[in-house]
Amino acid sequence: MTTAAAVPLVRDVLSIFKLRIGVAIMMSAVGGVAVTPGIMPDLWRVTILALAVFLASASAGAFNQWAEADLDRQMKRTASRPFAAGRFRADGTWLTAILGLLAIAVIMAAWAANWWAAFHTFMGAFVYGIIYTVWLKRRSWTNIIVGGLAGSFAVLAGAAAVHPGWQAEPVILSIVLFLWTPPHFWSLAIAAHDDYAAASVPMLPVITSNALTAKVIFAHTALLVTLSLLPAFWSMGQLYLAGAAAGGALFLWTSARLVFEPTRKRAIQNFLASLLQLVLLLSGTIADRAIGPF
């Protein structure tokens, strides 16, 4: 195979694993480590655990595309994906590789941290792959609400590496991730309304209206931003507070604009703002632990 021919193949393989989502999930796990009071694990342990969560997310993303090849073909936004377009065949070989990758990820998490971290790593992939993709996505508008648990389990995986028990800060951050996912994806669903409607996927904007969905998005955003500030009253410092406040203010502003103007343009802006909010929140969390509260 020539280099020119290999480039599209590599691009297709990488696209199956939804690596951008994987990076966000990995950051959530590191954020879980950072927000949890206790003695920090060795850097190599945190690194391997982060990689394990990343690989688990990649396996779930690949399974999502493997299981939804027929659905992806019905939507313009996803019709060119490798399984949907027929460049790869959604067969048992791919399924075996995907499950093998998840098994490696779980073993890595157990080795680097403990079996609680491994359990949460597995559950994040299970929720996204089975509960969201197989069970709920085509059946219920609650699909992405339950799917939000995938990010929550990533936070708990990181937290378990520091302390396997329950503590307020990581639990709050996991709830924030749970609340973050619906407004993030509902904003995308408003922008891609026609695609989801054509494929009969019951996303909230499809079964109600963009206007009502925008109001629900704002309510979720207001609650998650409020909760995200609470760890600053426990053990987190000003770097955490700065990231949570800056990202939260931006997300609230774009969500409010979406309420007053529930258009595709505003939905895309809110979708992008949700990503920036998450980056600022998790970056502030990690920086606060790395540098220390002040």
Structure report:
With 294 residues, the protein is mainly alpha-helical. It has two domains: 109 residues, no CATH class; 128 residues, Four Helix Bundle (Hemerythrin (Met), subunit A) (Up-down Bundle), CATH 1.20.120. Helices cover 79% and strands 0% of the residues. The chain has 15 helices and no strands. The protein starts with a helix and ends with a helix.
Furnish the topology, listing elements before pairings.
Blueprint: H1 3-16, H2 19-35, H3 43-67, H4 69-72, H5 82-85, H6 92-112, H7 115-136, H8 143-147, H9 149-162, H10 168-191, H11 193-198, H12 204-207, H13 210-229, H14 238-260, H15 264-291
Helix pairs in contact: 2-3, 2-9, 2-10, 2-15, 3-6, 3-7, 3-9, 6-7, 7-9, 9-10, 10-13, 10-15, 13-14, 14-15
What is the molecular shape? globular
The CATH architecture classification of the largest domain is Up-down Bundle
Instruction: Provide the low-confidence segments as ranges.
Output: none
Q: What is the CATH C level class of the largest domain, in words? A: Mainly Alpha
What's the main sheet like? none
**Mean model confidence by pLDDT:** 94
Tell me the helix content.
over 70%
The sequence of SSEs as H and E is HHHHHHHHHHHHHHH
Number of domains: 2
Terminal CA distance reads 56 Å
The name of the CATH topology of the largest domain is: Four Helix Bundle (Hemerythrin (Met), subunit A)
What's the total number of strands?
Answer: 0
- DSSP summary: helix tally: 15
Q: Strand fraction band?
A: under 5%
* Structural class computed from helices and strand pairing: mainly alpha
Report the radius of gyration as a whole number of Å.
19 Å
